[in-house]
Amino acid sequence: MIRWLIVVVLALVLMSGLTAWLRRFGFGRLPGDFEFRLFGRDWQLPIASTVLLSLIAALIARWL
Fold first, then answer.
1. Strand, coil or helix: 25
2. How many domains does the chain have?
3. Using CA atoms, how far apart are residues 33 and 16, in angstroms rounded to an integer?
4. CA distance 27 to 48
5. What domain range is 16 assigned to?
6. Mean pLDDT by 10 residues, the chain (64 residues)
7. Can you tell me the distance from the alpha carbon of 3 to that of 1, in angstroms, rounded to the nearest whole number?
8. In sequence order, which residues have a C-beta less than 8 Å from that of residue 27 and are 6 or more positions away?
């Protein structure tokens, strides 16, 4: 269980660090990505970008 927690934390840190870099390539601005302002904060739901990155990761994993 502790391994999964470590993996999730590392994935979140990695994705938060790569967000600005990925936005340059269009991730986070796809048609299925939602941005809205609620309670004075900007919220993002990158659904389409998440699905696309998951497909790319699955193809790379299958290829290797």
1. coil
2. 1
3. 16
4. 8
5. 2-63
6. 82 77 83 90 85 87 87
7. 5
8. 46, 49, 52, 53
